[in-house]
Specification:
heterotrimer, A mainly alpha (319), B mainly alpha (296), C alpha+beta (365), A: two-stranded antiparallel ribbon, 15 helices, 2 strands, B: 296 residues, mainly alpha, MetI-like fold, 79% helix, globular, membrane (chain A), MetI-like (chain A)
């Protein structure tokens, strides 16, 4: 019997010289091939733009993106932003928009999920119908609602007048005090189905045994919800709220198409404002500085986002 | 004796009333949500079959006196310029979305598989980097990408959109698919490899067929995302013959501000493909979306 | 069929050593069980042999080839998994045919072999079903069929019975044993159930903490456990291990308990105790070697019955002695009540003595 051991010997003598991490990377070199395409695409379209945005935020840029003519001006762009009055209006709007949309979407979605949790005839059809607004394009949604809010021929105005609640159709989106809430209603229309889907899936994981045990222990419907169902859904809720918050913070289409940020900035949020600064007024440097600020805000949110997600992974690992 | 029975029955009635109270609250709430969801869509449909004159009446005609499909005919008629434009936008959207979808699946499948199966150094870091991408809004990338696309010579091409949409869809696609792969027992692949398959064959012959629902879900998600995307298309494309539907419609109707029936018909037709796709495959879609977030 | 040699096999994950210098030889046609508690490294060892996990160092020989760097598919092995790992989208027929297709056998030959395997395992009528339409026992049989259809050099089995219910497990146990005898197959079988290992294997390798503890025939392992771990792991109920202290007075060595009693030793056992590294000695005795008396006799040690478990043909009594639980089996006609005073007599020829410090068995010479 001959045993060929040359290859094994060679490998064994190689190992001690290599530091641990590098060796480990080397041993797994084939695994990276699977993620390489994804990483490559991300690097081009993400890492480079982030770098470029940060760089540009320290420069004064001429209009028309003749970027060879840019001049370094330090933090001037940032001071310009923070001392402008518009910044504070827009920030306030963003806050209202994000919090309002997120919380109401979540509560409506969760409540719908609870109401749909019980089996009844037509549940599937109802659920599918409720999800549709989430699937259709935000552009279509914006036009549909613009038409509904229309100051002359809008259906809501007509109903209000018909019921005698108004003398003539109110102008919802051309009015500084009603424009933002009106847009939030549209946004919620598109987003509550997402919360609903997530919470429905979450509800299915609530252990039936626990609910029955609570029932035996004498808990009523509300107590069962509060002490069993809700704590069990804590993780899903956190993830859902964070995803909604990020999406809302980043939304653009609805305010842009419905009002373009007007009237007099009453519906401008950060994203639409940045877009207008960059592509409307061609103030690339200021827009970049704005983006960096946005970026920092999101990093803070992102910290919680990742923590919520890793919290899940950790729990899964120990279970 | 009788008093005990009475109290018991009264208790029961009270309990039933309480249960019924919750149930009725639920029903009323659902009815309200259905109205909120459906009325705008129904109004869109009703408006789309009105004439321009009928749409601009006050009080509105709840049902058009003379329903007409004129708006649809105009949009779908290749003979007139409106129809030509609309059909071209439709075709552009279809092309961009389909290519994006195919590429997304090709790139996301191996990546998700690797994140689920292998424990290479930096795996967690890369995974969260991928997820973090989800955090950042289109606008942050808009200016630099605008410049990048000019440098790459992709301005005014569908390539610029496909490349951008690809990265947009990838994080979630990878996340969704990873959830699926996590649920496929690793022993199946091990068995296949022992039965004579290479690692790659085990993946193609055993794992891929099992993850078909996940792949379908990922594909729909990418498709819907690309179909509905507006901001990049709005920024990267300026030539009329290249526009995708969301931008095309906006361009077109900013010129014809009062053609509400046409606008509603166009909105409806733009929604049809994604809604149909979604309704047919919603089972996979909902499952995939929730798999990752809820399973843990 | 072929023999398998593991030489100084090591597998580390970061700083964690899952398998430590394991060396053993499985002869051609031998049935070897790897047995140990969960996390002892037995499944990792099996995966190393299969090639599913790359080895850190050492050698694996199957037949006359070193297979360290070969893919699983090139090692000429078959494996049966705990969860069966049947391909859920394929019918039973296609599950059985898959290994043959991968080896590019002609279609008619595949068909012949699959049908033959189905006949041997008595599942011809199940061929068109999908795995999820089968019972646990049937799935297990398909998994077995998929392994044997290919006639591999070595069969690897990873806890193949632990997902079955108790009755089916006993039945499949004898089927696998029969299968081994008929095919003269080389089998490496991983289990955490010492009873499976004892009843089925020609030799068993007891593992703990990544180390191979003892590798011998079940009867030898049972009769001569090398250390306290093996002694307590093999046999049911477990061997009683009583911590005592050796003391010598007037040239007479006895084992004394903190409870005050002491145990006289035979000359051979005195020799053993003399080899202990410290005074601490652990007395080991299997339930069947301890005699229970209901009245005091010379040399017997007083104890109190704690629980009494009649099983029908034998009654198990548990008592505390020197802080350890002692299991005794008595014929069912002897009635013992909980808390009753009893006296225990140890058989000097059949007790085991362990070094209290190293936990190794003490030997006479």
């Amino acid at each position: 019997m001959t045993i060929v051991t040359g290859k094994a010997e060679a490998r064994r003598t190689l190992q001690p010289g290599r530091p641990g991490v590098l060796r480990s990377i080397w041993e797994h070199r084939a695994d990276y091939a699977y993620v390489l395409p994804a990483i490559a695409v991300m690097l081009i379209v993400i890492a480079y733009p982030i770098y470029y945005t940060i760089e540009l935020s320290f420069f004064k840029t001429p209009p028309g993106l003749q970027l060879r003519d840019k001049t370094f001006i330090g933090f001037d762009n940032y001071t310009t932003i923070l001392t402008s009055e518009v910044f504070w209006t827009v920030t306030w709007n963003t806050l209202i928009w994000t919090l309002g949309s997120t919380l109401i979407s979540f509560v409506l979605g969760f409540a719908t999920a609870l109401a749909l949790h019980r089996e009844f005839i037509g549940r599937g059809v109802l659920r599918a119908t409720l999800i549709i607004p989430w699937v259709i394009s935000a552009v279509a949604a914006s036009y549909i609602w613009k038409w509904i809010y229309h100051s002359d021929f809008g259906i809501i105005g007509a109903v209000l007048v018909g019921l005698g609640l108004a003398d003539r159709p109110p102008n919802f989106i051309d009015n500084v005090s009603t424009v933002l809430p009106s847009l939030i209603v549209v946004n919620i229309w598109r987003e509550f189905p997402f919360a609903m889907i997530m919470m429905m899936a979450g509800l299915q994981t609530v252990p039936d045994q626990l609910l029955r045990a609570a029932k035996v222990d004498g808990a009523n419907a509300w107590q069962r919800f509060w002490h069993v169902t809700f704590p069990h859904l804590r993780n899903v809720s956190v993830v859902t709220i964070l995803l909604l918050a990020v999406a809302n913070f980043n939304s653009f289409i609805i305010p842009w198409i419905m009002t373009g940020g007007g009237p007099s900035n009453a519906s401008h949020i950060w994203i639409t404002h940045i877009y207008e600064l960059a592509f409307g007024r061609q103030r690339w440097g200021v827009a970049s500085a704005y983006s960096v600020l946005l970026f920092l805000t999101l990093m803070t949110l992102g910290y919680f986002y990742v923590r919520a997600l890793t919290g899940n992974e950790r729990k899964e690992g120990s279970a | 004796m009788s008093t005990i029975a009475e109290t018991a029955s009264r208790d029961r009635t009270r309990r039933r009333m309480r249960v019924d109270g919750w149930r009725w609250a639920g029903r009323i709430f659902l009815a309200f949500m259905l109205l909120y969801t459906a009325v705008p869509m129904i109004w869109m449909l009703i408006t789309s079959i009105k004439s321009g004159f009928a749409a601009t009446q006050f009080p509105p005609q709840w049902w058009p006196d003379e329903p007409t499909l004129a708006s649809y005919q105009k949009l779908l008629d290749p003979q007139n310029s409106v129809g030509q434009d609309f059909l071209r936008f439709f075709w552009n959207s279809l092309f961009v979305s389909t290519v994006t979808t195919i590429l997304s699946v090709i790139v996301a499948v191996p990546a998700a598989y690797a994140f689920s199966r292998f424990s290479f150094p930096g795996r967690n870091f890369l995974f969260f980097a991928v997820l973090l991408r989800n955090m950042f809004p289109a606008v942050i990338f808009l200016v630099p990408l605008f410049i990048l696309m000019r440098v790459l010579g992709l301005m005014n091409t569908h390539g610029s959109l496909i490349l951008t949409y690809l990265t947009f869809g990838l994080p979630l696609a990878i996340w969704l698919l990873k959830g699926f792969y996590d649920n496929i027992p690793v022993q199946l692949e091990q068995a296949a490899r022992i039965d004579g398959a290479t690692r790659f064959q085990a993946f193609i012959l055993i794992v891929m067929p099992l993850s078909t629902p996940g792949i379908i879900a990922t594909a729909i998600y990418s498709f819907i995302g690309a179909w509905n995307e507006y901001i990049y298309a709005y920024t990267f494309l300026s030539k009329n013959e290249q526009l995708t539907l969301p931008v095309g419609i906006q361009r077109f109707f900013s010129e014809n501000t009062t053609d509400f029936p046409g606008l509603m018909a166009a909105s409806f037709m733009m929604s049809v493909p994604v809604v149909v796709l979604f309704l047919v495959l919603q089972r996979y879609f909902v499952r995939a979306l929730t798999e990752g977030a809820v399973k843990h | 069929m072929a023999h398998v040699v593991l030489k100084d096999l090591v597998k580390t994950y970061g700083t964690f050593k899952a398998v430590n210098d394991v060396s053993l030889t499985v002869n051609d046609g031998e049935f070897v069980a790897l047995v140990g508690p969960s996390g002892c490294g037995k499944t990792t060892t099996l995966n190393l042999v299969a090639g599913l996990t790359p080895i850190t160092s050492g050698d694996i020989v199957i037949g006359d080839r070193v297979v360290n760097d070969l893919d699983p598919k090139d090692r000429d092995i078959a494996m049966v998994f705990q969860n069966y790992a049947l391909y859920p989208q394929k019918s039973v027929y296609k599950n059985l045919a898959f290994p043959l297709q991968m080896r590019k056998l002609p279609k008619d030959e595949i068909d012949k072999k699959v049908k033959e395997a189905a006949r041997v395992l008595d599942m011809t009528e199940l061929l068109e079903r999908k795995p999820r339409e089968l019972s646990g026992g049937q799935q297990q049989r398909v998994a077995l069929g998929r392994a044997l259809v290919r006639d591999p050099a070595v069969f690897l089995m990873d806890e193949p019975l632990s997902n079955l219910d108790a009755k089916l497990r006993v039945q499949m146990r004898s089927e696998i044993k029969r299968f081994h005898q008929d095919l003269k197959a080389t089998i490496i079988y991983v289990t955490h159930d010492q009873l499976e290992a004892v009843t089925m294997a020609d030799r068993m390798a007891v593992m703990n903490g990544g180390y191979l503890q003892q590798y011998d025939s079940p009867s030898q392992v049972f009769a001569h456990p090398v250390n306290m771990f093996v002694a307590s792991f093999i046999g049911s109920p477990a061997m009683s291990l009583i911590p005592l202290e050796a003391s010598t007075a007037n040239g007479n060595t006895v084992l004394t308990s903190a409870e005050g009693w002491s145990l006289q030793l035979s000359p051979r056992n005195v020799q053993k105790v003399a080899r202990a590294t410290t005074k601490k000695v652990v007395l080991g005795a299997r339930h069947s070697t301890i005699k229970l008396h209901k009245s005091a006799i010379p040399g017997a040690i007083p104890a109190k019955a704690y629980t009494v478990e009649p099983t029908g043909d034998v009654t198990f009594v548990q008592a505390f002695l020197s802080g350890a639980i002692v299991n005794i089996s008595v014929p069912p006609n002897i009635a013992v009540a909980p808390d009753e005073q009893i006296w225990l007599e140890f058989d000097q020829e059949r007790i085991h003595l362990f070094d209290g410090e190293t936990e190794m068995a003490l030997k006479a010479n």
